Amino acid sequence: MNTTLSRRKVLGGITAAVVGWSAASQSWATAAEVSGGASVAPVPTLDGTLTTSAADLDRFRQDFGRLKGSAPWAVLRPGSDRDIARMVCYARTNGLKIAVNGQGGTGTDQESHSVYGQASVPAGGISIDARARSRIIRIHSTSAVVEAGVTWGQLTDAALRSGLTPPALPDYMHLSIGGTLSIGGIGGTVQKYGLLCDTVQSLDVVTGNGDLLTVSPSSCADLFDSVLSGGGQTAIILRAKVRLVPAPERSVVFSLFYDDLATYLADSEKVMAENRFHIQAGETLRRPDDSGWRYKMEVAANYSGGAVPDRARLLSGLRDSRAEAVIEDIGYRDYMFRLDGYEAYLKESGHWYQPKPWLSLFLPASKTRAFMEIVERELTAADLGGGFLLFYPYYTRKVTRPLAVQPAEPVGYLFDLLRFPNPGETGIRAMLDQNRRLYDKAVAMGGKRYLVGAVPGMTTADWKAHFGARWDGFCRAKRRYDPSNVLTPGQGFFGGEAG
C-alpha cells in the first residue's frame, strides 16, 4: 500500500479532485493523476457528496467510547437512497469496507455513539454520515416513518405535537434511530414493550449486494430479522416505520432505596409482575459514606388530566426505606429527556470526553444475585467515575427479535455498567480486562451480551457461542445479503477480532 500517498490525500483536503479509487496505490485518486495515466475505478454519479477532506474525516476517526480509532479515507453524505446503494456496490467491487456512522449527540458534540469501534472502518474504508438522512417523513395516529439519521429525541418531540410518543425509548434520547435499531435499543419500558427494535413494523434497507428493499415480518422476514439487533451486518437501514401510542401528560416518579440486594430483587420483580408502573428501571449506587453498595428502584406512573395515580397503592407491600423515598411529579417530556441535565454536568466536569469502557449484559434472574455479589467485590467508586450501573428486571419474552439473544429464563436483568472515568484516569486497560473477566463469568452463568459495550478479545468463536442456535441462520443471511463482507466490519462477527 502507498501509505505516503494515502496520508497526503487525507491531510490535503482535496475533495473536489477525487474521482475514484486506485487499486494500484490503494488510495483515492485525483483528476490530475487520472490525466497522467493512473488507472482508477471512477466514483459513481451521486446526488450527495463523497468527501476526503481532513476536516470531514476528523469527525469520523473516533467514537463516543474513545477506545478504538477508525480510519476512513472518505465520508459519504448521501443525497438519496441511490447514493447509498451505489456506494455499497462500489465498495464491494473495489474491496473496500463501508459502515453507517450514526452521529448522535447534542450541539457540536455529534459522533458515533458506539463505544468500542463498532461503527468504524479500516484504512481506505467509507463512513456514511447518517445525519445527511434525517427527515421525519410522516406521523400517523399509530406509527411514524423516519429516516435512519433521525434521533429518538427528534421523533419524540414531533410525535408529542400530535399527542403521541414512541412506546419504547432509550434513556439517552439523542441517538440515531437507525443505529439504535441495529443493536436493539433498551429503556425503562422493556418490561412492557421489549427493546426499541421490537416496536418496528417495517424497514427500507440497502443490502450488502446494493439492493434496495422494504422488509417486514411478512416480507423478506429473514433479512428483517437479521437487520434488527444484527449489528449492521446484512443491510443498511434507510428508513423505519415505528409504532406510536398516545402520550401521557405527566409522570409520577418514585426513587426507592434499598440497602439489601435480596430485598431489591424481590421488590423489583414484585412490581413488575403486578404491572404497577409504566416505566421501571434501577441502578446500583455507592452508599453515601462509601462503605459499600445500595440499590435504587426508579419507577414511574404516567397519567393525563386529573387521573393522578394513587401513590399509597403503588407503594403498598414494598419493603423500601420510606424515609429515603423521593417522589416527583413532572412532565412526561421532562422525564424522557431527564439525562440532558446529567450530560451537561458530565461535559462540564470533563467526564464526557474520557474513554468509556462500558459493559452491557443480559443476566438470567436465577444467577443475578450471585453475579452481582462478584461485581460488588470487584467494583469501586473509581471504576464508575462519573458514571452509573443500571440494573433492573424485564421479561425475556418481550424481546422478540431473534438476534437480540436472551438468557434462557422467563426473567432477565439488564446489567449496564456505564463508566465515565475521572479525567486523568490511568487504569482504562485494567477496566477493559475487568470487563472481559465479568463477561466470561456472566456467560458461564447463562448471560448474554447487549451489543453496546467494550469487551476485548471477542473472536468469531465467542460470537458463535453468543448467538447460539441463531448463529447458522445469521451466517446464511450474511452470505445471502452481504456475501463480500463489506458492511460494518467493526463488529468483528465474521472474521478477525473486534477487541
Q: Give the helix proportion (percent range).
A: 25-40%
Strand arrangement across the biggest beta sheet: 20-17-19-18-22-23-21-24
SS-based class: alpha+beta
Largest sheet: 8 strands, antiparallel
| Radius of gyration, whole Å | 23 Å
User: Could you tell me the mean pLDDT?
Assistant: 92
Secondary structure tally: strands: 24
**How many H/I helical runs?**
17
- Shape by Cα distribution: globular
Terminal-residue CA separation: 24 Å
> Beta-strand percentage?
25-35%
- Low-pLDDT residue intervals, each spanning 5 or more residues: 1-17
Overall description:
The protein is α+β, with helices and mostly antiparallel strands and about 500 residues long. Helices cover about 30% and strands about 25% of the residues. The protein contains 17 helices and 24 strands. The chain has an eight-stranded antiparallel β-sheet. A five-stranded antiparallel β-sheet has the order 10-11-15-13-14. A four-stranded mixed β-sheet has the order 4-5-9-6, covered by helices on one side. About 50% of the residues are buried.
